[in-house]
């Protein structure tokens, strides 16, 4: 869904086409989607959410895990944490090696770059400028996040600046994504995180 919306947000790259979008959910208009951290309250309940459950988990004393999926215009991209995380080079190359032509990392990278407006790196080896998907770094880093990153380093996990760049192993502050185009269902968030510890803040949809 997100990929489609960002593609459709670039009219210069799209011929005159009519698209029929079928969606089981309603509009992306809830305060729980747009208020900071409001989405956390939605995750276990069937409100704009398919609210799937895992089967009972032996390792959790039979408890079932929440498996949220957006049931709303924008799908899970309306209810997700907005972290900008690309797949790993190995996976794309593996898919290509299995016979999926056009799916290698080098073949998909130009599309990632074209869709992106990266506030930090601009047009560069791994990033793009001028695309419909704005990517920003955390604006108010917390000392707790910094302490977490330092603890990771002390335990042999390197800090890496750009986890969507050459290397994805390490701890890092995450980047958040926000579409520049108001017609998309993208919103602004900012995050500070490591791979296992995520903190999020949602802000209003950009005008
Ligand atoms: C809570 C949460 C947090 C996440 N955080 C992140 C993150 O920080 N960063 C990140 O990169 N990814 C994140 N993700 C994952 C990301 O949002 C999804 O991978 C992505 O949105 C999947 O896109 P999709 O188009 O495949 O499916 P979806 O976005 O789920 O879209 C599927 C759409 O189809 C609709 N649909 C399903 N069945 C029917 C039907 N029978 N008839 C009509 N419509 C139907 C659904 O309602 C939904 O709107 C998160 C996901 C969740 C749920």
Topology:
Blueprint: H1 2-8, H2 31-34, H3 38-42, E1 52-53, E2 66-67, H4 76-79, H5 89-97, H6 105-115, E3 116-118, E4 133-137, H7 143-154, E5 175-179, E6 189-193, E7 198-202
Parallel strand pairs: 3-4
Antiparallel strand pairs: 1-2, 4-5, 6-7
Bound molecules: flavin-adenine dinucleotide.
Flavin-adenine dinucleotide binds at residues 1-2, 22-25, 43, 68-72, 75-77, 79-83, 85.
Bound molecules: flavin-adenine dinucleotide
Order of helices and strands: HHHEEHHHEEHEEE
Query: What is the count of structural domains?
Result: 1
**Helical/strand content category:** alpha+beta
Strand composition percent: 5-15%
What distinguishing features does this structure have?
alpha+beta; single chain; binds flavin-adenine dinucleotide; three-stranded mixed β-sheet; 7 strands; 207 residues
Walk me through this protein's architecture.
The protein has 207 residues and is an alpha+beta fold. It has one domain (2-202). The chain has seven helices and seven strands. The strands form three sheets. Strands 3-4-5 form a three-stranded mixed β-sheet. The protein has a two-stranded antiparallel ribbon with strand order 1-2. The longest helix is centred in the last third of the chain and has 12 residues, at 143-154. The two termini are 20 Å apart. 24% of the residues are buried. The model is unreliable at 180-207 (pLDDT under 50). Flavin-adenine dinucleotide (FAD) binds at residues 1-2, 22-25, 43, 68-72, 75-77, 79-83, 85.
């Amino acid at each position: 869904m997100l990929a489609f919306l960002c593609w459709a947000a670039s009219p210069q790259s799209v011929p005159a086409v009519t698209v029929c979008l079928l969606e089981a959910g309603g509009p992306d208009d809830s305060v729980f989607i747009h208020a900071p951290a409001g989405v956390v309250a939605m995750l276990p309940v069937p409100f704009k959410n398919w609210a799937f459950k895992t089967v009972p988990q032996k390792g959790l004393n039979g408890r079932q895990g929440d498996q949220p999926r957006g049931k709303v215009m924008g799908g899970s991209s309306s209810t997700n944490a907005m972290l900008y995380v690309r797949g790993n080079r190995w996976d794309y190359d593996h898919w290509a090696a299995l016979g999926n032509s056009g799916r290698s990392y080098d073949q998909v990278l130009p599309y990632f770059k074209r869709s992106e407006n990266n506030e930090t790196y601009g047009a560069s080896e791994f990033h793009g400028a001028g695309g419909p998907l704005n990517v920003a770094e955390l604006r108010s880093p917390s000392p707790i996040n910094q302490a977490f990153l330092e603890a990771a380093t002390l335990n042999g996990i390197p800090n890496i600046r750009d986890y969507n760049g050459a290397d994805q192993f390490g701890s890092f502050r995450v980047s958040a994504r926000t579409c520049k185009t108001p017609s998309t269902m993208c919103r602004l968030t900012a995050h500070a995180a490591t791979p296992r510890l995520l903190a999020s803040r949602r802000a209003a949809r950009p005008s």
